[in-house]
């Protein structure tokens, strides 16, 4: 049996946010039903009885623009077609303002045991600049309703480095988020993606981005403020809360689905533009909605591109992802996959990075220090030069 993570992409949103280059369309409510049927059909086409599902992640887009009953039905179908582990982590991304209390209760009853809420900022000024459809009050009420519906594992997604944002503003967002007592926090730096309205706003000087130094200070604030509030950093941008007094010490709120990516394990992506990597094979689904729907309706796998992965590329990817984790790449998993040790592959390039305080050595592997995380691209470019 091969354990996999299952990702399902819902490419619909109420409105397009100004910074977004994800595969998502505003409106198109008329396509919802056809798309859901196609997702179920794609699962039937691709499913291999040698697999078992360890995690399910329904992301987007905004999955919660779909009726909760449709998401529940999708989960039922997955469990009918696929072998899903009884303790599987089942996450749904929810955007505030798109789901109410009864809807959340319906998701919980359907087996969703982790809710990832797209909060983004604790300041309504920035939500407006980003073109989000919701306010901070909507985030607060979604979290409260989710707790009432029985969710005990809630993530908040946040973005720092927003136009006009100061270090104080960001720290205020962190404090606001902590007060909502989520079980997990994802804090990503804003990326200005080509072709987005935000890029034009920046280019035309209509908004001003924080400097690199200011953004670095915001990142460092994450590594200081969140651990002090009981959240352990386990990945460059991700923090999971430690068990509280009286709670089982085994409580682990790290995102098991994302750990599959960072550990370079197998995942199957279903839906528009979804990526899969299984047993060293990588493919990307079609990203045109009509082409995707037609391919699946014709009973063919909707593969848009097969990405050949040389062993060298795969080894580099495994290390790049592994270094995102605060524990570093797993030396045993690495050696058993490639038949060489981590130390052999990294060679003499490690020492200057250890000396410079960018890496540290622990438990038979290497880890980025906070300083190394700030400039992780440069550190990894040096470290993995022969593989890139
Ligand atoms: S809600 Fe998310 S996926 Fe949808 S437009 Fe906004 S950022 Fe993009």
Strand arrangement, major sheet:
9-10-8-7-6-5-4-1-11
Taking the alpha carbons of the first and last residues, their distance comes to 32 Å
- CATH homologous superfamily label of the largest domain: Aldolase class I
Low-pLDDT runs of 5+ residues are: none
Q: Tally the beta strands.
A: 16
Question: What's the domain count?
Answer: 2
Mean pLDDT across residues = 96
Which descriptor suits the 3D outline? globular
Biggest sheet record? 9 strands, mixed
Relative helix content? 25-40%
Gyration radius from CA atoms, angstroms: 21 Å
- Based on helices, strands and strand pairing, what is the structural class? alpha/beta
Could you tell me the CATH topology label of the largest domain.
TIM Barrel
Identify the CATH architecture of the largest domain. Alpha-Beta Barrel
Quote the beta fraction: 15-25%
Report the CATH C-level class of the largest domain: Alpha Beta
The small-molecule ligands in this entry are: iron/sulfur cluster
Count of runs of 4 or more consecutive helical residues: 16
Protein name: Heme chaperone HemW
Organism: Capillibacterium thermochitinicola
Keywords: 4Fe-4S, Chaperone, Cytoplasm, Heme, Iron, Iron-sulfur, Metal-binding, S-adenosyl-L-methionine
Domain Radical SAM core: 1-235
What does this structure look like?
The chain is of the alpha/beta class. The protein folds into 2 domains: 259 residues, Aldolase class I (TIM Barrel, Alpha-Beta Barrel); 77 residues, Arc Repressor Mutant, subunit A. The chain is 40% helix and 23% strand. The strands form 4 sheets. A 9-stranded mixed beta sheet has the order 9-10-8-7-6-5-4-1-11, sandwiched between helices. The protein has a 3-stranded antiparallel beta sheet with strand order 12-13-14, with no helix packed on it. Strands 2-3 form a two-stranded parallel ribbon. Helix 1 packs parallel to helix 2 and helix 2 runs parallel beside helix 3. The chain is globular, with a radius of gyration of 21 Å. The protein starts with a strand and ends in a 5-residue tail after the last helix. The model has no long low-confidence stretch (mean pLDDT 96). The structure holds iron/sulfur cluster. Iron/sulfur cluster binds next to loops.
């Amino acid at each position: 049996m091969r354990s996999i993570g299952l990702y399902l992409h819902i490419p619909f949103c109420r409105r397009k946010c100004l910074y977004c280059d994800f595969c998502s369309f505003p409106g198109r409510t008329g396509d919802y039903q056809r798309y859901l049927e196609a997702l179920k059909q794609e699962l039937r086409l691709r499913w291999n009885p040698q697999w078992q599902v360890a995690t399910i992640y329904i992301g987007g887009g905004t999955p919660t623009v779909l009726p909760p009953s449709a998401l529940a039905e999708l989960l039922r179908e997955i469990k009918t077609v696929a072998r899903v582990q009884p303790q599987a982590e089942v996450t749904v991304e929810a955007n505030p303002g798109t789901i109410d209390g009864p809807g959340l209760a319906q998701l919980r009853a359907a087996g969703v045991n982790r809710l990832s809420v797209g909060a983004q900022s604790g300041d309504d000024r920035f939500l407006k600049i980003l073109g989000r459809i919701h306010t901070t009050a909507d985030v607060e009420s979604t979290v409260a309703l989710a707790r009432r519906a029985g969710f005990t594992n809630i993530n908040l997604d946040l973005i720092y480095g927003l136009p006009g944002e100061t270090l104080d503003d960001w720290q205020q967002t962190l404090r606001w988020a902590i007060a909502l007592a989520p079980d997990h926090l994802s804090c990503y730096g804003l990326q200005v993606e080509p072709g987005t309205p935000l890029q034009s706003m920046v280019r035309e000087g209509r908004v001003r981005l924080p400097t690199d130094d200011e953004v670095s200070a915001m990142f460092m604030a994450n590594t200081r403020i969140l651990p002090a509030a009981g959240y352990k950093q386990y990945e460059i941008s991700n923090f999971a809360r430690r068990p509280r007094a009286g709670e089982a010490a085994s409580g682990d709120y790290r995102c098991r689905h994302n750990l599959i990516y960072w550990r370079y394990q197998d995942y199957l992506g279903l839906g528009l533009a979804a990526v899969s990597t299984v047993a060293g094979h990588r493919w990307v689904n079609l990203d045109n909605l009509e082409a995707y729907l037609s391919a699946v309706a014709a009973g063919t796998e909707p593969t848009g591109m097969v990405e050949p992965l040389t062993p060298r590329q795969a080894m580099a990817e495994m290390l790049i992802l592994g270094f995102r984790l605060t524990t570093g790449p797993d030396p045993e998993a690495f050696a058993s996959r490639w038949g060489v040790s981590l130390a052999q592959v990294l060679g003499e390039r490690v020492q200057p990075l250890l000396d410079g305080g960018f890496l540290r050595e622990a438990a038979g592997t290497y880890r980025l220090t906070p300083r190394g995380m700030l400039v992780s691209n440069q550190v990894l470019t040096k470290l993995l030069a022969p593989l890139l």
